TrEMBL record:
The lineage of its organism: Eukaryota, Metazoa, Chordata, Craniata, Vertebrata. This is G-protein coupled receptors family 3 profile domain-containing protein. One of its GO terms (biological process) is sensory perception of taste. The keyword Signal applies. One of its GO terms (molecular function) is G protein-coupled receptor activity. Keywords: Cell membrane, G-protein coupled receptor, Glycoprotein, Membrane, Receptor, Signal, Transducer, Transmembrane, Transmembrane helix. One of its GO terms (cellular component) is plasma membrane. Residues 1-16 form the signal peptide.
Length: 765
């Protein structure tokens, strides 16, 4: 039983002028080597007793020298009885009404594959491709019958971008031709680098008419040091030759598998002068027995009965050594393409038992279905395909051109997961060791703690802006924005992160707190009933000092102000009354006895104190109801700290403060009126001195409050409260205690009456 496989091949010889289908292309030894590898694979399968026993694979191989001239041969192969079936007839025809082939292997070019694939699809003839890597063929809606053993362009681009990012080459040029392979690569590259740090600084389509001098001048002007050539070998040769002629140097050239193993380029004169060449290739696979097969060939020169081409051609002398040394790229894809078809036939013909069922009729669509489920081992590689007909096997080798050899320096694998390795120490850069790795950047990296400010259309071109205090830069998330720290964090200039602020407040265990709280002892009262009231209020005022320490709470914020303001108002009202009474005794009583009698009759002193207390209660109630004090975190003045404090609305408490200020003013007025009273019994002067100390205390605190907002402000506030209390305790009550203890003769009603009578006689004279 003989089954035909239709094998395509591209451009390995020059057709003679006397051939009807005349066309000229250069003889390509690498393509001829692949032709022989196809032959070797078929003969190896036919000689096997395991894969297809009793079945012989037939084939025809011919050269496609152009797209249009390939149509007659294709139509002849898919025709049945010299006619092509209509599209609507999807099922195979009965009997001998079948096409001549069950599968097609090829072609090498993506452009030619795009041309031929729709024709083969009409009969669902599977096309197993070994060289067309365009991403278009992964679209099964358009190309349902294409399977391929070559890795698609998507993976080549992914490997290429990985290398660029690995060496931090962010400013690159991309050269391509107008073929399907190149234009597809250019489109994929643009999509892949969209969200990366790589910028396409220059892109151009090259051909025989390209002005290479102008092109390289633009590349040099933009200081691009990495040039990607995503094109077939013939186009790459033009670019490299032009670079040598124009003495282009100090560049890194990235080669695809289409030309990374090109022997003519590797051996080209002065190839080392252009810089460093890094290639991405499908690694050369040793095919056991293939070299022996080549050496066994006879008459391969094209002279005699056996011809090198399927048409007549004038070919030069060709030695076996030249074929063996030719570009080995795509060797395994070619070899595995033949075996994929053979294994599909193995399953369809039920050859597991050691003998194939030759009575089974095999149709192309059956082979296609079987190809999709391929899963076998070939040369220690598991051969299978994904849902798009792309191979789930194989990897890329990363090579460095070193003295006419492509030396392997790393790899890039896709299966079963993405992994890569590059041994940079093996690469001899064109910098001759002065720089470990060449750079290709539009702008140098920003210093640590600086954000990028894009300069122009490319994200790779930027200025650097230092992030200020309270901001930081996270280059991984967004290298273009200085991010504000949270309120509980802080940062210095040029920071890459924020640090938590330390929480500051005066605890009860603090030395300053302990000293301050020790000063709030209760002083025993002395004197009349009003003295009891004053001392009691001073004691109640001292309660507020306890709430300036410890971690603030909302209740603390209220109790810091409420006891002090409320009860200190009573104290001030008491001193207003006492100041007035002294003046009344020595002055008003003598001149206006009726006023004194009214004052005594209606207990005017208690009436004034009660009015002041009730008024202050109302003012505090309005203040705390409308805008109550609340917790406040001071984060502006001290970026590294969070000072816990209380926020008291000044506008809300202005009424209470005005009332206290008014009482102080009345004390001063009555004290001034009593400046000529007897020296030995002049409380007005003592009160005046106390008020001066009070005013001085709060002026000093207000000044500190403006200049300083740290945690010790709470201690200073508590000390100001204590100073307000001790100004009366020490300078008003202490002299009284001295009179009681050390001058008891002055603490009698008779002494006081004598002072009044003496003062009355003096003012009446």
């Amino acid at each position: 039983m003989c089954i035909y496989i239709f094998l395509f091949f591209l451009g390995f010889c020059v057709f003679s002028e006397d051939v009807f289908l005349t066309c000229r292309q250069p003889f390509i030894v690498a393509n001829y080597r692949r032709l022989q590898l196809m032959r070797f694979a078929v003969e190896q399968i036919n000689n096997s007793t395991q894969l297809l026993p009793g079945v012989t694979l037939g084939y025809e191989i011919f050269d496609l020298c152009s797209d249009t001239r390939s149509f007659p041969g294709i139509l002849d192969f898919i025709s049945v009885n010299e006619s092509v079936r209509p599209w609507h007839q999807l099922q195979p025809l009965p009997g001998n009404m079948t096409s001549k082939v069950i599968s097609v292997i090829g072609t090498y070019s993506s452009t030619k594959t795009r041309t031929l694939a729709p024709i083969l699809t009409m009969d669902f003839i599977p096309l197993v491709n070994y060289g067309s890597s365009s991403s278009a063929f992964s679209e099964k809606v358009k190309y349902p019958s294409i399977m391929r053993t070559v890795l698609p362009n998507q993976q080549m681009i992914e490997a290429m971008v990985t290398i660029l990012l690995h060496f931090r080459w962010h400013w690159v040029a991309f050269l391509f031709d107008n073929g399907e392979y190149s234009t597809d690569g250019a489109d994929l590259f643009l999509k892949k680098i969209k969200d990366t740090e790589i910028c396409l600084a220059y892109s151009d389509e090259v051909n025989a008419n390209t002005n290479f001098s102008e092109m390289f001048q633009k590349i040099d002007t933009q200081k691009i040091n990495v040039v990607i050539i995503f094109a077939p070998g013939r186009t790459a040769s033009m670019v490299i030759q032009a670079a040598i002629n124009l003495k282009i140097s100090k560049k890194v050239w990235m080669a695809t598998d289409a030309w990374a193993f090109n022997r003519k380029l590797l051996e080209m004169s002065k190839i080392d002068s252009i810089g460093t060449v890094i290639g991405i290739i499908q690694p050369e696979s040793e095919i056991p027995g293939f070299h022996d097969f080549l050496y066994s060939l006879q008459n391969i020169s094209g002279q005699g009965e056996e011809r090198v081409c399927s048409q007549m051609c004038n070919c030069r002398q060709l030695t076996t050594e030249e074929i063996v040394a030719a570009d080995p790229a795509y060797s395994f894809p070619v070899y595995s393409a033949v075996y994929v078809v053979a294994h599909a036939l193995h399953n369809l013909l039920q050859c597991e038992s050691g003998q194939c069922n030759t009575s089974t009729t095999v149709y192309p669509y059956m082979v296609l279905a079987e190809l999709k489920t391929s899963n076998f081992t070939l040369l220690n590689k598991t051969i299978k395909f994904d849902e798009n007909g792309d191979p789930e096997f194989g990897f890329y080798s990363i090579v460095f051109w070193n003295n006419e050899e492509a030396e392997e320096v790393g790899f890039f694998k896709m299966y079963p997961f993405v992994d890569y390795y590059i041994n940079s120490t093996k690469i001899q850069w064109y910098t001759n060791g002065k720089v470990s790795v060449p750079t290709s950047l539009c702008s140098q990296d920003c210093p640590v703690g600086s954000a990028k400010l894009q300069n122009g259309i490319h994200t790779c071109c930027f200025d650097c802006i230092v992030c200020l205090n309270g901001t930081y830069i996270n280059t991984t998330a967004d290298p273009y924005t200085c991010v504000n720290c949270f309120a509980t964090e802080w940062s210095t200039t040029a920071s890459t992160s924020c640090r938590p602020r330390s929480v500051e407040f005066i605890s009860f265990e603090d030395t300053a707190a302990m000293v301050t709280l020790f000063g709030t002892v209760v002083v025993r009262s002395a004197g009349g009933p009003m003295c009891f009231l004053i001392l009691g209020c001073l004691c109640l005022c001292s309660v507020s000092v306890f709430f300036y320490f410890g971690k603030p709470q909302e209740a603390f914020c209220i109790l810091r102000l409420l006891p002090f303001v409320l009860f200190y108002t009573v104290c001030l009202a008491c001193f207003v009354v006492r100041s007035f009474q002294i003046v009344s005794i020595f002055k008003i009583g003598a001149k206006y006895p009726s006023v004194q009698r009214w004052w005594m009759k209606y207990h005017g002193q208690w009436l004034v104190i009660a009015v002041a207390f009730i008024l202050q209660v109302l003012l505090m109630l309005i203040s705390y109801t409308s805008v109550p004090p609340k917790l406040y975190n001071e984060t502006v003045l001290y970026p590294e700290q969070i000072v816990l404090a209380c926020d008291i609305n000044r506008a809300a408490v202005i009424g209470s403060l005005i009332l206290c200020a008014t009482l102080c003013l009345l004390c001063f007025v009555f004290s001034y009126m009593g400046k000529e009273l007897p020296k030995n019994y002049n409380e007005a002067k003592a009160i005046t001195f106390c008020l001066l100390l009070l005013a001085l205390t709060w002026v000093i605190f207000a000044t500190i409050f403006i200049l300083y907002r740290g945690k010790h402000l709470q201690t200073l506030n508590a000390l100001a409260v204590l100073s307000s209390l001790y100004s009366f305790l020490l300078w008003y009550f202490l002299p009284k205690c001295c009179i009681i203890l050390f001058q008891p003769e002055k603490n009698t009603p008779q002494y006081f009456q004598g002072l009044i009578q003496s003062y009355t006689k003096t003012i009446s004279q």
